[in-house]
Structures
1.
Amino acid sequence: MKLPSGASIPRMTPEEADRRRYLSHALLNRMHLTPAGDPVAYSLDGDGQTQYYYDPNRVVEAAPELWYRPAMETRETRTLENGTVVEKMNTRQAAARGYYTRERLNQMRYDVTAEPVAYNVRGDGSTILFYDKRAALRRPLPCACCGKEPRYKRKLCRACFERDLAVRRAQGDAYRAEPRFMDRSRVLFFDLELTGVYDHDEIISVSIMDANGEVRMDTLVKPLHKKKWNRTEKIHGITPAMVQDAPTLDELIPTLKEMFENADNLIAFGASTDYSHIKYIYETESEQEALHKKIRCAAIEFVRYQNEHFPDNTHAALVDAMAALGITWDGIPHSSIADTIACMKVWEALFPNYYTTPAPEAVAHGMTGIPYQLEGDSKLERAAHLAEKMNAASAAVSAETAAELLPDQEDDGYGDSYGDSYGDSEGEEPTGDNRDMEEVPACV
Ligand SMILES: [Zn+2]
């Protein structure tokens, strides 16, 4: 016999089914069980009634409304035109097994594709047919805004998404264009290199510059506990030998504290990792909290910008921000100071009216504002393309070094691919538009 699911089951005698320890409906009902899958066999009794048998390993506890069901013992069935035998049951019993009428399934956005599996008779004598929801096809969800077209992105259809995007872009552009009246000498950009991404890892390099493009600190740091960091060494190129004669973080603390005290904002690309390490230059929580209030994350702002202007782009590492905003490297890419310069320029491009004064020539250098795409299918191809885009100062950098800067091709999530390119970086959740992806946007 062929089942609605397409499976074929053998006919056997009740004795044979019993020998195999198969369970009939009557037995299942007595044990308050219900099948978790198709029957595995059937028998025909003297009256031509079908008895189904179920595998005892594929049963689950029945819903309470099925526990006492006298009808089970004297089952009424009906043979459909195609020969399928269906059982009579009321709506509640049917629902407990996942059987519904065609109308109800349509309301639940399912299309009936299989034969009915049960029936009932109305008071007026007409027949109701039930269909198995598991054998029905789920229709795509409609747009959360117009309710008509199928969804494309952010629970919206293409047209509604485009309209919503235009509104968000306009809001984002207005937010970024707002004058902030910041003093260039009181806005600092910083980048740390670490022995790893965990709390117990240590800072081995600190680079800080102000929004005038003036380097305030660019030093290696000798860690107190860590002796080697093979994994991250490949990324930032800082070896244990290089930091042997460097100052310790303790020695830098007075300078750092003074610098931070005289700053209104401290900005980094992927600031949360950096903050979680640099905060320990302060001992009290209130001091750490005061520092936190000044921290801004360029990656979060870039992700918002990218969602509004390049919604199809998925990578959001520093190199991707530079490409999207038309910025080339100054210095050796991914050296701490080059990253800091790049971060400063990304911020300058994102917030053109952030400061009271326009960008000095040193800051505007290499900022064309003309976005370019990093091309290539493989990481090396993309890296080679990036190397091409670099200015003369960094042309010597090999494609292989640049490859370390690029997030993995396979990695399409913002969470991992922006900010530090450490493979196992936890990353922080961008607070831009990403966070409320699941919220239904207002209809515009
Ligand atoms: Zn729509």
Note: The radius of gyration is 33 Å.
2.
Amino acid sequence: MSHYRSNLRDIAFNLFEVFGRDEVLGRGPFAQMDGPTAREVLAEVERLATGPFADGFVEGDRVGAQLVGEGEVVLDAGTRRALDAYFGGEWHRLNLPEHLGGFGASPSLQWACSELLLGANPAAVLYSGGPFFATILDGLVTAEQRERMVAPMVERRWGATMVLTEPDAGSDVGAGRTSAVLADDGTWHLTGTKRFITSGDFDWPENIVHLVLARPQGAGPGTKGLSLFIVPKFWVHEDGSLGERNGAVVTGIEDKMGLKASSTCTLTLGEQVAARGLLVGEVHDGIRQMFKVIEYARMLVGTKAIATLSTGYLNALDYAKQRVQGAELARAADKTAPRVAIIRHPDVRRMLMTQKAHVEGLRALTLYTATVQDDIVVGEADGRDMTDAQRRNDLLLPLVKGYGSEKSYELLALSLQVFGGSGYCRDYPLEQYLRDAKIDTLYEGTTGIQALDLFFRKIARDSGAALAALLGEILAFAKGDAGNGALAQERALLATGLEDVQGMLGTLVGFLGHDSGRGVELVGLQTTSLLESLAELVVGWLLLRQAEVALAALFRLGNSGAPAPPGAAAGDRDAAFYEGKVAAARFFVRTVLPELTARRAVLERTDLAVMELADAAL
Ligand SMILES: Cc1cc2nc3c(=O)[nH]c(=O)nc-3n(C[C@H](O)[C@H](O)[C@H](O)COP(=O)(O)OP(=O)(O)OC[C@H]3O[C@@H](n4cnc5c(N)ncnc54)[C@H](O)[C@@H]3O)c2cc1C
């Protein structure tokens, strides 16, 4: 049986019942893809995920990507089969705009499908990104470069990489030393060593396009001095035909904790053969251009994280229903009491509900962010100014990536815990899930970097305007009364959580003018706490919005919401689903949001003691 447990019901609930995608699909830029077609696509992608993608998951881990010969990386057979199935079914077109041969899918549908594939086999998804990278280049390059690079990347299914990191330039991307010199023929010759490059080489596509940040000779320091270059593995002539092997060569791959099927490469540029590149567009604007890729990658990583938690939770749920151990707590002293499935034990139920509430909340956060991206595409197609929606998307991305990855990793440990000792063994996928998911808190900016980005770039830089708009919506919801008062207590808790977050923000802004002149350090001690708290507030809000929809659905079903018995009719199963939605929202708001009050109190008492302590005393 496939390791992968999908949750298409909850994905569809988000897309169609909560976020009303039927109103958006089938028109404007998504004219080709209406709601019913989108549902069929989801069902097909689920088959791809639970079939060929999931089938290669364990093999990819046990065999791993292997470096052989002159910088060639060989994939395991399972990952190859997943890529064959993906491209054979033309599924890469799902992530392409229509003018590049895409199906006209909205971002929300794309991310919903990505969740399914990422949960089943994240490494295969990472290898499959070339055509999507082409869509980013499409908006940045010259007409000549478009013809030469973008079209073949899509049609010939080339691989692609994002190449920023160097041994001495990790979080500090601006410390990069890779240099670029303009040659007589108008190409650039790059020299340097890049580290940790995902999919830096693999033996599936005929070519790989590296998007490399490098510093043109004479350019200034820091990120502003970086330009973006297209550096193909095999040179691409102006007519799109392939030329000689270029001097971007993989000289090592990492032996990692997890995600072993995904090659993580040292990419050496210009060591023996010149590494020729094309400047992207005609401007030296590398970091801004690369941010288009980074934003996509951050959303991808957040989606990967929650996809893994979702399958982790559903595996744990299955196990808890089957594993019989001990008697019910109320009859624990009675030696004759029947043994029960562990799902009957309060502590196991606590673990399961904690996972369920978080993963459904995180899915809501991710798909809500995707609907903001839908709005941007629709608005831009109409020629409207979408700056506000763009800022909201920017504000949400650190939450999706930072909070999504931290919580998923933390709670996957709880999924494993449900299995007892069996979870620690390779008979079950949990130990691999945990190892594969840890990377999500690290790449595309660590959580610490996400938190700094949230406060200084996404909140402070626009004087809190994007945040204020979001908090305004949360306040309006908290003060609302839809649902016949069934959620009154939860709305009150949401309002308290909102006050706590506003209080934290006020304190952090106040720190900036601190008498010590070191207020920014006080802020830096608490930005991760802010990220976590804001994310939990937004998740609480989204879960309550879901609960409102679920309560209305239960009312329509005329059902009290009693759990569905085995073999129940579809309507009863739906009742159980909606009842679960209401319960998850209540659980999250009642058990997680009160923690914000304690966190606010801690934040208000921040002082410089940790900073003043000698390093030797740490
Ligand atoms: C498997 C894998 C795949 C990767 N794929 C790619 C890829 O495809 N392309 C690519 O370019 N890179 C890639 N990376 C690199 C990845 O993005 C970096 O590892 C990451 O950004 C962190 O950089 P670092 O490892 O150098 O850690 P460091 O920057 O050294 O950070 C170490 C610690 O210090 C903290 N820290 C650092 N600076 C600050 C600061 N200013 N304030 C507060 N805290 C700070 C960090 O949060 C972290 O906890 C990959 C890495 C891995 C492991």
Note: Residues 159 and 237 are 17 Å apart (CA to CA).
